[in-house]
């Protein structure tokens, strides 16, 4: 074929206007199928975006359209997620702790005094590197808040405290072994360290067989008893299963004697005790289960499948899976469990004593007599029909002004850092300023009539007797969220005082 004929064929395939050919057939020999493919228009490459399963055009306009749709979808999902979290969050406003304290029943001191002590095993969750916090607990409430013999004042042995750890890391293994051998108060579970991935389940599984208190016998006496005094030399002649097993966090200060008395007046079986949140679950800083419920957790073929997740909510889920769920006793304590005054949480207020709660109750009774209107409306909960709920004080849906009044604290402010009332205070004055109601120097922080360092008219023993309404018991059970060691020591001084701590 001549060169002119090739030129003519090229022009006819390029169309009018003499433009360059868009599709050019190959002059090489090929099969009929290949020749057919050579004459088909070639499609531009496309990409599929997996989130929408649609072609991702190389056109800038389409790229921005899909990108905008993606961003809008992400924003929508994020917004819905945050809304759900906000709705389910029980801590989005300060708790009306004054209402809880004035509305719940008086603690039955006479009944507690008439009953024998109960055996309590307290497991404080810890981890290998947290040696400093364990020492802090040992030297404070682990020693100084144990129940004591009414006659001798000696500590009793029916409340046992142990630290619960997972397997230590290799670099800490020997330190943990030495510490455990020294203090004999550590339990190392055969599992990786964690908080919400099964540790609580493994703890209760271990506790179902091993949570015990010693039966002691004096070397100079044939008499033996559970929880006997630790003053003279004792011999352990046996072990008894604990009536209650407690799970606690290491940022909680627990007054063990008060905890034992609260459990003493609770039902011995089917009991789930703690700070009830939204009629749903007991807060994780400190809750207790009667031994039969611990045994149920350890042996249930169903519970084992629901061990991962927020551990305090998981325990409530296990309780609701109980075969006799309607017979459970949910025992709630919302007055004497709270967060420390410097924590700034929804549960935070000053250190609380019975005399101030008594004052609040008198004020509430006076206001109620003046305003008889407004029946209390219960806030529906998650309790199975027929469940017994002790100490449940549902918070009524009142006005914002009412909620602000009943959540007010003389010490802390919601979501604001704590500020000392006046500069230059002594440690003793700082501790007193953290007491709800103002402490011994109430008024000196805001009035200049007297110097703030004026000596108190009462000594420490008189102050304690007045604050506890001349009873040896009846105050704070747990102070939580003490993330700093200084907060822990402040709580120790506020609740126990130097008379209980100093040897001389």
Largest sheet: 8 strands, mixed
Strand elements, count: 18
Backbone shape:
globular
Tally of separate domains? 1
Please give the count of helices: 18
Strand content: 15-25%
- State Rg: 34 Å
- Helicity range of the residues? 25-40%
Stretches with pLDDT under 50, minimum 5 residues: 1-38, 47-53, 373-386, 446-452
Report the structural category.
alpha/beta
Overall mean confidence score, pLDDT: 83
- End-to-end Cα distance: 122 Å
Largest beta sheet: strand ordering: 5-4-3-9-14-11-15-17
Q: What would your notes on this structure say?
A:
By secondary structure, this protein is an alpha/beta fold. It has 18 helices and 18 strands. It has one domain (93-373, 388-501). A hairpin with a 5-residue loop joins strand 6 (212-218) and strand 7. 33% of the residues are buried. It is found in: Golgi apparatus membrane. It comes from Tilletia caries. One of its GO terms (cellular component) is Golgi membrane. It is a single-pass type II membrane protein.
List the helices and strands and how they pair.
Blueprint: H1 3-14, H2 32-38, E1 47-49, E2 54-56, H3 60-88, H4 97-103, H5 109-114, E3 120-125, H6 131-139, H7 141-144, E4 159-167, H8 173-183, E5 186-192, H9 199-210, E6 212-218, E7 224-226, E8 234-241, E9 244-249, E10 253-254, H10 256-264, E11 271-274, E12 276-277, E13 281-282, E14 286-290, H11 291-299, H12 311-320, E15 329-332, E16 337-339, H13 354-370, E17 388-390, H14 400-406, H15 427-433, H16 460-467, E18 478-480, H17 485-496, H18 498-501
Short description:
Its main location: Golgi. This protein is an alpha/beta fold and 504 residues long. The protein contains 18 helices and 18 strands.
């Amino acid at each position: 074929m001549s060169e002119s004929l090739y030129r003519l064929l090229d022009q006819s395939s390029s169309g009018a206007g003499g433009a360059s050919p868009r599709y050019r057939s190959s002059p090489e020999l090929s099969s009929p199928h290949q020749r057919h493919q050579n004459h088909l228009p070639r499609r531009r490459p496309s990409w599929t975006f997996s989130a929408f399963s649609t072609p991702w055009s190389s056109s800038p306009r389409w790229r921005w359209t899909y990108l905008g749709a993606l961003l809008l979808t992400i924003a929508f999902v994020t917004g819905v997620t945050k809304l759900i979290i906000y709705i389910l969050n029980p801590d989005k406003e300060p708790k009306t702790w004054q209402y809880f304290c004035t509305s719940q029943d008086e603690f039955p001191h006479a009944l507690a005094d008439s009953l024998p002590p109960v055996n309590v095993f307290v497991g404080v969750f810890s981890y290998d590197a947290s040696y400093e916090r364990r020492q802090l607990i040992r030297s404070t409430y682990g020693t100084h808040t144990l129940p004591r013999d009414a006659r001798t004042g000696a500590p009793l042995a029916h409340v046992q405290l142990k630290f619960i750890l997972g397997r230590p890391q290799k670099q800490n293994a020997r330190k943990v072994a030495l510490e455990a051998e020294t203090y004999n108060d550590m339990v190392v579970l055969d599992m990786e360290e964690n908080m919400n991935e099964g540790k609580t389940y493994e703890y209760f599984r271990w506790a179902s067989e091993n949570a015990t208190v010693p039966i002691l016998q004096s070397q100079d006496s044939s008499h033996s008893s559970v929880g006997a005094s630790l003053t003279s030399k004792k011999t352990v002649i046996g072990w008894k299963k604990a009536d209650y097993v407690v799970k606690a966090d290491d940022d909680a200060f627990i007054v063990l004697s008060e905890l034992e008395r609260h459990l003493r007046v609770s039902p011995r079986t089917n009991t789930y005790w703690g700070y009830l949140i939204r009629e749903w679950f007991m807060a994780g800083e400190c809750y207790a289960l009667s031994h039969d419920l611990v045994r149920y957790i350890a042996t249930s073929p169903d519970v084992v499948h629901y061990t991962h997740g927020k551990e305090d909510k998981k325990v409530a889920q296990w309780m609701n899976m109980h075969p006799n769920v309607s017979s459970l006793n949910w025992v709630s304590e919302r007055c004497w469990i709270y967060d420390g005054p410097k924590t700034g949480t929804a549960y935070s207020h000053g250190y609380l004593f019975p005399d101030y709660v008594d004052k609040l109750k008198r004020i509430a009774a006076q206001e109620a007599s003046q305003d008889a209107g407004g029946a209390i409306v219960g806030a529906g909960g998650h309790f199975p029909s027929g469940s017994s709920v002790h100490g449940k004080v549902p918070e009524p849906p009142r006005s914002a002004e009412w909620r602000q009044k009943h959540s007010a604290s003389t010490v802390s402010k919601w979501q604001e850092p704590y500020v000392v009332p006046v500069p230059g205070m002594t440690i003793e004055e700082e501790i007193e300023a953290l007491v709800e109601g103002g402490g011994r120097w109430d008024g000196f922080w805001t009035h200049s009539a007297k110097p703030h360092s004026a000596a108190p008219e009462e000594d420490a023993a008189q102050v304690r007797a007045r604050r506890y309404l001349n009873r040896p018991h009846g105050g704070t059970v747990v102070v939580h969220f003490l993330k700093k060691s200084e907060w822990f020591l402040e709580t120790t001084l506020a609740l126990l005082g130097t008379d209980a701590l100093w040897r001389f």
